[in-house]
Amino acid sequence: MNQPGRPERSSLGWLILIAAVLGGSAAAFAYTAGWLAPGRLTPDRMIAALTPPSGPPLGHRRNHAKGICFTGMFEANGNGVELSRAKVLVQGRYPVLGRFNLGTADPNAVDATVRVRGMGLQISAADGEEWRMAMINPPVFAVSTPEAFHDLLVAAGKKDPEAMKAFTRANPEFASFAAWSKAAPWTGSYAEEPYNSLNSFVFTNAKGDERAVRWSLVPTAEPTSIAQAELEKRGPDFLEREITARVQSAPQRWTMITTLADPGDPTADPSRAWPENRRKVQVGTLVVQRIEPERDGPCRDINFDPTVLPQGIRVSDDPFPAARSSVYRKSYDLRAAEASDYPRGEVAKP
Amino acid sequence: MSSVPHRFAPVQRLLHWLMALCIITMLFIGVGMVSTVTPEYLPLILIHKTLGVALLVLVLVRLALRLHLGAPPLPADLPPAIKLGARLSHLLLYGLMIVMPLLGLGMLWAAAYPVVLYGGIEIPALLPQSDRVHTLLWNTHVYLGLAFFALVLLHLAAALFHALVRRDGVFATISPLPQRERMKPTE
Ligand code: HEM
Ligand code: HEM
Ligand code: HEM
């Protein structure tokens, strides 16, 4: 009870204290949420930097927006058991779901204009445990850190040519990717490209031994180099038409090769390749058996978040998978909310 | 109940403060993790999911105890409108404690994400993937999350008001400290 005769002043003092506690809590909350820190690199800012001047690709992925679904099998040969206790590396066949895609935020991009080609892949163990990944065809990533990736997107989006020059001065590691981009041959098929994890992950085997690894899906199809100008004549969607016809005539295969880091290799920096002589282990074969258009396909509503990993595989000191997970989640939230802008076809799949 | 309790039972008080701490942590982790791209994102979301599911279990235990043990009455001199406000706000707090984890789980299921908690515990999906359901649950989790924080602030303000200004013994009913109430000739 309020004691009679207690001076009002002390009540007022307590009220001020209560207000201060509330104000302080609200400020701490706002600070944690980043509302007071406009400089923080948030998923929203990363997505804003990915967004083309013409506006976001509503209903589509905020990057790698153009793509086509596939299903098939991962045939593990059992060699991976030595490296990781992941169930899908035990000899056997595991169902996969995936997506061939182009590294662009434009779902209507002309295929021959996009340098980076990618693959989203999900391998499921018998008990449903999943391994998701999203890989691309260059041998190194463009930059060393997620912050630098943001800077790259911002610089590349500017009309001023000085912006890119300033970016490359500040991020010299970009040179390796730029050299690949300029000189690497183009091919006429998703089936002739390698898809590289670039990010490194840690494999843990049944004994508890840990090793940092990267992996690649190396095509068994022989790559044929074709001039970009030649590809431009094949129509805006030639890659999708080609892979559909090709898989219809025969399943397409990739060998999954893991590369083991030596101590001291740059595991945290996907812009730096590891020396060629590192030990490599073939762990299995990806067999792509069926292609389906994205609009009604099974890959559409999957987020190939590279941190969805089975027991026996975890992230390393590479900062990218965490950044990607955070941004891909936001991209998924947005595109799912915009599904009406990308309606599914009228006829349901049988 | 034959005898009206004076204070919440020790186990109720323990749960109140344990859960208060965890929920405040959940709210801060929630808004912190969705605004970062640093490597901390992964441990934060893992804690968020694991602690969130643990809280769902705890709130069910807490509700069962509440129904079984009851609660001490509010001071007789509290105006009826305030009493109603207190009851409603407590009801809302219980509601949010139940709904928030369910929304979190449902939102992940509807996005076809595997829900894997700390220690590799996997929670099987009870909903199929659905853009519409995901969007509804996501928006609700986000906005109710913010509303939850606002309500906790209000609750905190009311508790401090009882403890510091009114000094009416309400805070003592749930205070984590063993009470010297026998020495105080209150009520
Ligand atoms: C911080 C750096 C990165 C950012 C911000 C970023 C951003 C994005 C976004 C927003 C998406 C769309 C996700 C969705 O809606 O499902 C995406 C997809 C993709 N990203 Fe990244 N990315 C980054 C790094 C990388 C790296 C290092 C690789 C390859 C090694 C990569 C390969 C891919 C691929 C292949 C897809 C398409 C996956 C699919 O088919 O769904 N990204 N990226
Ligand atoms: C996330 C944080 C919190 C939640 C979810 C929460 C929830 C609740 C709920 C549901 C009740 C009603 C108990 C019942 O009647 O069964 C209650 C009572 C109470 N809480 Fe909290 N609480 C939180 C934090 C706090 C804090 C930080 C304080 C004080 C500084 C506080 C002080 C009190 C007091 C004094 C009561 C007793 C009210 C009465 O006797 O009717 N709570 N709390
Ligand atoms: C007491 C329980 C919970 C509270 C108070 C809570 C609170 C929050 C808050 C405040 C946010 C940030 C919203 C925003 O500003 O965007 C959030 C996001 C999130 N929560 Fe929870 N949460 C709870 C339980 C859970 C559970 C059990 C799960 C899953 C198992 C979960 C999964 C998530 C996810 C995935 C996000 C990110 C949403 C997105 O933006 O995609 N939450 N939560």
Automatic annotation (TrEMBL), chain A:
Origin species: Bradyrhizobium forestalis
Q: Which GO terms describe its cellular component?
A: cytoplasm
Show the GO MF annotations: catalase activity; heme binding; metal ion binding
Q: What is its EC number?
A: 1.11.1.-
- Per the record, the domain of life is Bacteria
Family note: Belongs to the catalase family.
Stated role = Has an organic peroxide-dependent peroxidase activity.
Look up the record and name the cofactor or cofactors this protein needs: heme
Gene3D superfamilies with a match to the protein in the record: 1.20.1280.120, Catalase core domain
Q: Which UniProt keywords apply?
A: Heme, Iron, Metal-binding, Oxidoreductase, Peroxidase
Q: What is this protein called?
A: Catalase-related peroxidase
Active-site feature positions = H64
Q: What class of enzyme is it?
A: oxidoreductase
Please provide an example of a Pfam family that matches this protein in its UniProt record: Catalase
Query: Where, by residue number, does heme bind?
Result: Y328
**Which stretches make up the Catalase core domain?**
35-348
**A biological process term (GO) from this entry:** hydrogen peroxide catabolic process
From TrEMBL, chain B:
What processes does the entry annotate via GO biological process terms?
Answer: respiratory electron transport chain
Question: According to its UniProt record, where is this protein located?
Answer: Cell membrane
Keywords from the named record = Cell membrane, Electron transport, Heme, Iron, Membrane, Metal-binding, Transmembrane, Transmembrane helix, Transport
Main subcellular localization, coarse class? membrane
Q: Which cofactors are reported in the record for this sequence?
A: heme b
Query: Organism's domain of life?
Result: Bacteria
InterPro entries listed in its UniProt record: Cyt_b561_bac/Ni-Hgenase, Cytochrome_b561_oxidase, Di-haem_cyt_TM
Cite a single GO MF annotation.
heme binding
A Gene Ontology term for the protein's cellular component: plasma membrane
Q: Which residues form the Cytochrome b561 bacterial/Ni-hydrogenase domain?
A: 7-173
PANTHER family given for it? BLL0291 PROTEIN, CYTOCHROME B561
The UniProt entry's sequence similarity note says: Belongs to the cytochrome b561 family.
Full protein name: Cytochrome B
The organism of origin for this protein: Bradyrhizobium forestalis
